[in-house]
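Dear H.,

Thanks for agreeing to be a second pair of eyes. The structure we're designing against is below in token form, covering all 354 positions.
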């Protein structure tokens, strides 16, 4: 494989989904060289190096960004480092793949968009929602069909036990690590943006109902909401309602209900299938029980190779696209804090340039 096709990769933060998804995919791809990894501890870096056959470890993330033998950087840290590391990677004229969620808040999202716009020759991608990856083609084709008709309303229900353990606090429950991201709200936000369009306005309420305790039994204040309710209007005037909770005991539910003028589409993310319900049928028809495969890494690498050849390329979500769901997270926070409706089309003067 020639030099234009070979891509040398560095990882900053290789745990969780990086080991579950990204590294297994990259390890099987021709032309990919895993050069260096930097985790929070030398021990963790060495473990990942040995497991995935990286050439070396790095003592700090600057060594990854500044390395002359690295072309693309995968950022797998928690959101609190995404903005800084992405900006540094782009400034070093390297391509960047940033783990979701994009960053801490709307301000950081706009900074990342500005950095990407300042380096248009570099590919800047955020890991997409798994819901989008599997079902986007099927749902978008259905929404555009006569079988479904005109979109009338959207409902999202997400219930799980993510916040139930009273003596365990994950990074997702720490605002200093996750910012304004809440439960899977951002994943659904990205998905709805892609399928149905952004909110034009919304009203949100949030709550923390379950106290946490440390090993000594002392109460720990949790400032990331455990329950979120959202009502609003999508672009085009379509009403939308969402309910998210991490307090469901022994029960999980994850679905998106799209009501159309001719039929209703139910995307059941638990059973992994899409159903179409019409007025003339008492049971739902399974539209696609297979869905699309995960090809996130190959899509990123294809864009990198196209950029090298001076060809046009596109990734989804780009930094600009991902900033749209961070804008929604900011709106949810502002609405709940101030007990008011937020108009997303005018609430911020810092408009995104597409």
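And this is the sequence the design step returned. I haven't edited it by hand at all.
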């Amino acid at each position: 494989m020639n030099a234009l096709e070979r891509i040398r990769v560095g990882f900053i933060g290789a745990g969780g989904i990086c080991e579950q998804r990204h590294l297994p995919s990259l390890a099987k791809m021709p032309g990919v060289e895993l050069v260096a990894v930097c985790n929070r501890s030398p021990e963790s870096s060495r473990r990942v190096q040995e497991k995935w056959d990286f050439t070396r470890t790095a003592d700090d993330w600057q060594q990854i960004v500044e390395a002359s033998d690295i072309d693309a950087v995968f950022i797998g840290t928690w959101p609190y480092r995404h903005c800084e590391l992405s900006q540094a990677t782009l400034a070093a004229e390297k391509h960047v793949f940033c783990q979701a969620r994009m960053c801490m808040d709307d301000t950081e999202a706009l900074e990342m968009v500005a950095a990407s716009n300042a380096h248009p020759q570099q590919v800047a991608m955020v890991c997409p929602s798994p819901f989008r990856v599997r079902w986007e083609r099927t749902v978008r084709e259905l929404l555009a069909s006569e079988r479904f008709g005109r979109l009338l309303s959207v409902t999202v229900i997400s219930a799980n036990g993510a916040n139930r353990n009273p003596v365990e606090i994950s990074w997702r429950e720490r605002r200093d690590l996750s910012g304004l991201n809440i439960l899977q709200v951002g994943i659904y936000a990205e998905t709805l943006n892609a399928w149905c369009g952004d909110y034009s306005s919304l009203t949100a309420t949030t709550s923390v109902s379950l106290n946490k305790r440390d090993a000594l039994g002392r109460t720990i204040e949790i400032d990331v909401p455990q329950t979120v309710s959202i009502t609003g209007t999508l672009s085009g005037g379509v009403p939308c309602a969402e309910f998210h909770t991490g307090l469901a005991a022994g029960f999980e539910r994850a679905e998106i209900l799209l009501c159309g003028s001719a039929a209703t589409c139910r995307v059941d993310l638990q059973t992994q299938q899409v159903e179409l319900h019409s007025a003339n049928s008492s049971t739902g028809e399974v539209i696609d029980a297979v869905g699309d495969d995960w090809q996130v890494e190959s899509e990123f690498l294809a864009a990198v190779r196209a950029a090298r050849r001076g060809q046009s390329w596109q990734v989804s979500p780009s930094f600009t696209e991902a900033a749209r769901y961070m804008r929604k997270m900011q709106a949810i926070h502002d609405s709940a804090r101030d007990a008011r409706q937020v108009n997303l089309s005018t609430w911020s003067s810092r408009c995104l340039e597409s």
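Two observations from my side: Residues 7-128+294-315 form a domain with the Rossmann fold fold (CATH 3.40.50.720). The mean pLDDT is 93.

Warmly,
E.
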